[in-house]
Amino acid sequence: MPSIDLNADLGESATAADAAADHAMLALVSSANIACGFHAGGPYTIATAVERCVALNVAIGAHPSYPDRSGFGRRFLDATPDEIYYDVLYQIGALDAFCRVVAARLRHVKPHGALYNHAAVNTDAADAIARAVHDYNPDLALFAPPGSRLLAAADRIGIFTVPEVFADRAVNADGTLVSRRLAGAVLHDPAIVAERAVRMVLQQTVTSMDGVEVALAGKTLCLHGDAPGAVTRAATLRQALEAAGITVAPPSRDHDDGN
Amino acid sequence: MPSIDLNADLGESATAADAAADHAMLALVSSANIACGFHAGGPYTIATAVERCVALNVAIGAHPSYPDRSGFGRRFLDATPDEIYYDVLYQIGALDAFCRVVAARLRHVKPHGALYNHAAVNTDAADAIARAVHDYNPDLALFAPPGSRLLAAADRIGIFTVPEVFADRAVNADGTLVSRRLAGAVLHDPAIVAERAVRMVLQQTVTSMDGVEVALAGKTLCLHGDAPGAVTRAATLRQALEAAGITVAPPSRDHDDGN
Amino acid sequence: MPSIDLNADLGESATAADAAADHAMLALVSSANIACGFHAGGPYTIATAVERCVALNVAIGAHPSYPDRSGFGRRFLDATPDEIYYDVLYQIGALDAFCRVVAARLRHVKPHGALYNHAAVNTDAADAIARAVHDYNPDLALFAPPGSRLLAAADRIGIFTVPEVFADRAVNADGTLVSRRLAGAVLHDPAIVAERAVRMVLQQTVTSMDGVEVALAGKTLCLHGDAPGAVTRAATLRQALEAAGITVAPPSRDHDDGN
Amino acid sequence: MPSIDLNADLGESATAADAAADHAMLALVSSANIACGFHAGGPYTIATAVERCVALNVAIGAHPSYPDRSGFGRRFLDATPDEIYYDVLYQIGALDAFCRVVAARLRHVKPHGALYNHAAVNTDAADAIARAVHDYNPDLALFAPPGSRLLAAADRIGIFTVPEVFADRAVNADGTLVSRRLAGAVLHDPAIVAERAVRMVLQQTVTSMDGVEVALAGKTLCLHGDAPGAVTRAATLRQALEAAGITVAPPSRDHDDGN
């Protein structure tokens, strides 16, 4: 029976409106990436986020970032591999403390924003992140783009990898995402996005911007929760997946997963 | 054979001069309290501090603070017990991550500055800290003033307590410290300070500002490393302790300790 | 012809939803208090906020806070008067730079959250704030509660004072606000709030929680923009003021104001 | 009569040892670059630094940085030109407030660390900084490397430029600094450094690493204060300048300066 993990970012704002959106997204996903205080969030938002994940049985992940609150972690910072290792380690440990005290389990790590994008193409940064995750707890999973340096680094060091795909982003013929600076990079039609999601799971393919059929094997699908209408789109996507007989569940580590 | 723990704060600055002073102090103490990023320090200073403690076989402790970098954690902040609990938990977890990856053990927690002072006299704050320490890891020790609310809270929840005393501070007739705002609150003469330290350990007494003999049972003695001449004074004190046949070692949990 | 200033806080979040709410509130008020980076906001939110105020002809004010991002400036911090003076000065200067480069004028200062509340009752804090405002620019106005220490300090040093009142808060018989910890402290019915606002302006009185008629002379009325339904309530209030023949405009410094 | 400005960074640490070093350097320089809170410092260190500059008659400058406290502003951050403009503007305004309240004059701006290095070679960043300085106050001077994009941007927008040179750094044949990653990039011999400084001022030349005579016209010479022995080396350099008949004074804007 086909299955996919749905993930969303959590705990990135302390305002009432954002907390409500967080709550709505949590009802739709199977994994959450919780902001650890470097691009957003802090002890109080973490505590709330962990508590909600436990209540809704959502798998808890760390969402570490470059230390860049004013830029929301979206800007490349020329940190050394050691600095990246220590920054990621600090954030994982801080978040895990909140899991421990409620007897929850930290399940995965998904780097945020510019750190995620940089580690996708830079081996030194990728190795630093993979080492931090592995050294902290070799049972943690790492979310990373299919075919990326980050995924390769995680494979090398021997931690569980979860390739992440996006149903609402146009892709190039090599499977990489089309830059947001180009027109058409982001897909807005809920029906088209849902259809792509279903095909990604059932056939592990996607149609590129140029009309080419591209193989793309994802185990988790990212839902964006911070744009107007995001919750509604996410709900449409989940309904389409379920209508197609797809189970939504955290990434499985079973042997027949091929990992 | 009499023994005492000597502790000092660590990792509170990234400058070369301060790092050198840190290093010198580490050679003299048996326990170190490492800044966790809320009043000072951060991932890189933590990594260095943990590495040095391991190299010099110094027991590692967390030194959590109110979130107040601009005031170095020295100012009371009217945080709720929940906020204190989450702030302390976050800092312990972040620091512990650095211990885990080098297979070192986090041994104790000593709150910093205004948080330490407030928890000494406020039961709600004391309980919040003791709970955070206990919930994270019930084997951690908590450093706190003798007779304080913080010590009582730790006793109640059942974690190991380490009463902390100061050889370079004048005390009142009830054993509490004389306020720094009063003349004579801080003792500067290395010989007098060393003599008080020896007597604190061997006789568990100290002479108050008014000349009264006060019972004061400490298991750890705080050495200040951040003032001019501090390292020299600390060395004098340690030599006096050893000359008096006192062993310097981390707090023991043996049953005959009376705990 | 009766008139009142309406003020709201601005630039306290970088999320799209909050920016939209900010924009809607700006169309309703005559003065805005812009977060300066210590409890919320930063260079980019300030730039946007100043630009919008200019476009909508809203008077620009600084909204300085204790340095407490994780607590949103809502927690008392035991800062010295010197620290308060420097913190406020820094924030006013930073914000004013954004006014200068677009040839706009900084008009007023309204302390935020716990700093506002503390200065209302503490003369040392009040004097520190009034001095910072005065020393930076003696033409700036200071928003403060009627009868407060802060208002008195501003009067003493000779800057223009603007007493601030709240139509959606219950008041005690002495005109002070009922603590939010008590039931009934916040009024939610838009019609009642609007009616109180009109009476505050036309008759300079308000009915206390105990039914006593209280004299309360305000020159600015604070509108809260951050709760669900806030914009709608604010629009209702403004319509009621205008229907009663009241002009909404920044605080006037005319002599017949009695200042 | 030949003259040169000597500049040093100020207010980058709150520790007692660093404050003492700051104080010693201030007695040797004619211009100081004060940290504005983004890589180091804050309201309290700024207040102290401005006060000391006034007492010692040292020209006051702003030392704005990327927002990167954990990396001390030494790491490139991929900020947009608008973000750079706003960050620099915020920091200049904050610092200037402290000048205004003591009736001192802010004289110059020297970008810090990675921001300085990036703007030296990137026109967009250079323009953003030059615009921020100009828009805030067109009378401010901008310190920048000779031949840099930053200097060119300042020239274009019409603000006073002060080319900055380093006597303790090896230079390439084109006058640029030898990368610190190469051996020999930093010169440590006080006599050699002093001799280079004198020749830079009197002959406006320097010998490159390869032995080539390079023309290098500086109007300010940077003294590093944060390394062991720095104050002694700076004193040696200043004595050598004075022995050679060179006046140490802030950059002159006289017409015969050629600007």
Which residues of chain A sit in consecutive blocks of at least 5 with pLDDT less than 50?
255-259
Which two chains share the most extensive interface? A-B, 26 and 26 residues
Portion of residues in beta strands of chain A equals 15-25%
Helix count of chain A, per DSSP? Answer: 8
Give the total of beta strands of chain A.
10
Separation of the first and last Cα atoms of chain A: 17 Å
| Helical/strand content category of chain A | alpha/beta
- The strand line-up of the biggest sheet of chain A is 1-2-3-4-5-6-9
> What is the string of SSEs of chain A from the N terminus onward?
EHEHEHEHHEHEHEEEHE
Q: Report helical residue fraction of chain A.
A: 40-55%
Largest sheet of chain A: 7 strands, parallel, barrel
**Gyration radius from CA atoms of chain A, angstroms:** 17 Å
Shape of chain A: globular
- The overall average pLDDT of chain A, rounded, is 93
State the assembly state of the protein chains.
Answer: homotetramer
